Amino acid sequence: MVAIALHSVIPVRTEAREEAEQNTQMLFGELAEVIDEQPRWKRIRLESDGQEGWVDAKMITPMTDKEYAAYKKALKTAATVAFPMAYAMSENNGQTIPLTAGTRLTNYKDGRFEVLGVGFRIDPSMLITAPLELNQENLLKAVRFFINVPYLWGGKNALGMDCSGFTQTVMSLFGKALLRNASEQVTQGKPIKDLSKAKAGDLVFFDHEDGKISHVGIVIDPERVIHCSGRVKVEKLDSNGIFNAETGEYSHHLVSIRRV
Fold first, then answer.
1. Percent of the chain at pLDDT above 70?
2. What CATH number does the domain containing 82 carry?
3. Which own/partner pairs from 198-202 qualify as long-range (CB within 8 Å, at least 24 positions apart)?
4. Looking at the structure, do residues 186 and 212 belong to the same domain, yes or no?
5. Same domain for 90 and 43
6. Do 170 and 76 belong to one domain?
7. Which structural domain range is residue 124 located in?
8. Which residues of the chain have pLDDT under 70?
9. What is the spatial distance between Cα 210 and Cα 217, in angstroms, rounded to a whole number?
10. Fewer CB near the terminus (10 Å): N or C of the chain?
11. H or E segment at 85?
């Protein structure tokens, strides 16, 4: 069975209980395959990046094969929310729903979109109808409103996101489909051997003492990186890693640069 999210954000958890750790989130309009179930809970696999976890059964909506086929076709020309938060109003009942960056809106035209037969109105200035060109100017425009978004494990929305949720969300605005975790994102794209050759939009990966990839950020230029560590922020970058001006120390050790 395929299901769709019709809530702004749905927590996806490691276990079928409210207290379980959140490992990712399902945004409005995202699709998932239901692969297991328990009373009140369903285990899903997100279609966008393959992440699995448990969601409250009442928070997802089953789709028929016909609805799924039509929705998949509509996704090919969907508009995308480009700002950290936008609000859409239902034409059915006049209620509003907050939509976070990276949310894709099907059947969009002139400030109106439609999902499973329900129409919504939204401010067109909050959307992009085609991927942005990946360059420094557009990157800086895209990320400026994310500054100071707090860190949240498993988060990928403007009220809280982790490092790879931030990169996944931002890069989606440029038509780049990233996997969910830093350890997965490092397998994508091609390697850039020298930081001096890095360009705006390249991904930089970092490790802890165990050598495993544990953190990811986005290059602004070879001397600056934007990343989510405690909060989304811009910091100094060099061949050693990220330099924290407040502590006077390197907070993350650079191990890889990838161009997606």
1. 100
2. 2.30.30
3. 198/222, 198/257, 199/136, 199/259, 200/134, 200/135, 200/136, 200/139, 201/134, 201/135, 201/136, 201/139, 201/171, 201/174, 201/259, 201/260, 202/257, 202/258, 202/259
4. yes
5. no
6. no
7. 68-130
8. 209
9. 19
10. N
11. strand 85-90
**Which pLDDT does position 231 carry in this prediction?**
97
Residue 214 · residue 206 · CB < 8 Å: yes
Say yes or no: 53 and 73 in one domain. no
**d(C-alpha 234, C-alpha 226), whole Å:** 4
Q: Cβ of 118: how many Cβ atoms within 10 Å?
A: 12
| The two three-digit tokens of residue 169, written as one number | 């969300």
Residues 251 and 143 in one domain: yes
pLDDT tens digits, residue range 205-216?
999 767 789 999
146: tokens are 């994310």
Identify the domain boundary among 103, 130, 157.
130
199 and 154, same structural domain?
yes
Residue ending a domain, choose from 130, 145, 171: 130
In sequence order, the 6+-apart residues with CB closer than 8 A to the CB of 27 are 5, 8, 9, 10, 99, 100, 102, 103, 156, 157
Residue corresponding to tokens 């076709």: 73
- Looking up residue 193, the CATH number of its domain turns out to be 3.90.1720.10
What angle separates helix 163-172 from helix 136-143, to the nearest 10 degrees? 120
Give which of 180, 142, 143, 141 is closest to 162, Cα–Cα. 180
Angle at 257 (CA atoms; ends 253, 260), nearest 5 degrees = 145
